[in-house]
Structures are given as structure tokens and as C-alpha cells.
Write a structure and sequence with these properties.
mainly beta, 102 residues, 9 strands, 0% helix
């Protein structure tokens, strides 16, 4: 069994025309584990951890997207130990999620 630590979410660019987004991080079988209102070129602390085996899916969605919720992508994290990052890009927005697996 591995332990996943979601540490920081970096907003490189926002999707919103107003200059801010309302992203939410969703972890497979655990639901939304972080959400907030963010501005571009900022780093945000997530501080979420959980146990998993094999792989686990993490997705980034956008509340307040025109027409409801928008998806910025889903990626899978393996149980290989180490510190890494995931990149989410869609609709002009770009985010990087920093995480560790032990």
C-alpha cells in the first residue's frame, strides 16, 4: 500500500475572463478534496493525503465555467515512491499539482 500526499496547486494561467478560477481537486473514490478561488501565477496549499494501491485517479475541475462545471483533465498517479507533478491544461487554463508518494 502506498500513501499519496497532495501538497500544492500552482495556477499558471486562469480560464476565467475575470482573472480568477474556482478549481476543485477530485480524488478517485474520495470526491472533492480541495477547492478554492484562485488567481493566475499563484501557489496554493492543498494538504491532502490518503492510502491507495496500484494507481489512483486525480482530476481537476472548474466550478463557474460557462454552462456549469468544466473539466481540466484527469490523470493517474502510480504507487512508485517519489516527488512529482501533474500538469492540467484546457480552455486556456494551466495548473500544476505537486505531490509525493511514499
Amino acid at each position: 500500500m502506498a500513501r499519496l500526499y497532495l501538497e500544492k496547486l500552482k495556477c499558471v494561467t486562469t480560464e476565467g475572463w475575470s482573472g480568477f478560477d474556482e478549481p476543485r481537486l477530485i480524488v478517485q473514490d474520495r470526491g472533492t478534496v480541495w477547492n478554492g478561488t484562485v488567481l493566475g501565477d499563484r501557489m496554493f496549499t492543498v494538504k491532502y493525503d490518503c492510502d491507495f494501491t496500484g494507481t489512483i485517479a486525480v482530476s481537476l475541475g472548474e466550478l463557474g465555467a460557462s454552462g456549469g462545471d468544466g473539466e481540466l483533465g484527469e490523470q493517474r498517479i502510480t504507487d512508485t515512491p517519489g516527488e512529482r507533478s501533474l500538469r492540467f491544461r484546457a480552455d486556456g487554463a494551466e495548473y500544476r499539482l505537486l505531490y509525493a508518494v511514499e
